[in-house]
Automatic annotation (TrEMBL):
Signal sequence, renumbered to the chain: none
Keyword field contains Chloroplast: no
Main location: nucleus
Record bears the keyword Nucleus: yes
Taxonomic source organism: Falcunculus frontatus (Eastern shriketit)
PANTHER family hit by this protein: HSPC111 PROTEIN-RELATED, NUCLEOLAR PROTEIN 16
UniProt GO cellular component terms: nucleolus
Pfam families, alphabetized: Nop16
Family: Belongs to the NOP16 family.
The gene coding this protein: Nop16
Single biological process term from Gene Ontology: ribosomal large subunit biogenesis
Subcellular location: Nucleus, Nucleolus
Protein name: Nucleolar protein 16
Amino acid sequence: MPKAKGKSRRHKYSYNLNRKRLYRSARRRAAPRIACSHIRHAWDPHKSVAQNLAEMGLAEDPNKAVPIPKKLLVSGMEVESDGQQPGKKIVRKPYVVNEMELEASLPEKKSNTLSRDLIDYVRYMIQNHGENYKEMARDEKNYYQDTPKQIKRKINVYKNFYPEEYKNFIASLKPEKMEVQ
């Protein structure tokens, strides 16, 4: 297939274009991307990043916020400096930090679940074979040709995710076995 005309020629550099000005104006227009909604709502676009964070009571530089105490040698004795900086800044928006602490203290929601196919597979295997993993490995429904150890691991994952459901399932299987005998 032939090349498009003009694609192979060398592009000329434009000396009249001021690239510094273009780059600076693009940087100035770009607003900082803020992930936390509490900070986003309290942010003042007319102030600098350092001023905004200082008003919220947040640190701009973590190394300055929590300094590592340096040991000073004063006439042969070791004295630790406390790292306090003179002239503390006034926090005008303390609600931002309070809301973030409250949000961080909430327990994390467990959202992991198993697929319906895996649950059905494990229940079928337990229902037909009990605890015999070698027999489960030779079953027709073992489409992925799982080894006995892999099947055992899947059953243990099911036990850990749904302990109550597993206990109820095992309890419902016992009367069926009694009827068969």
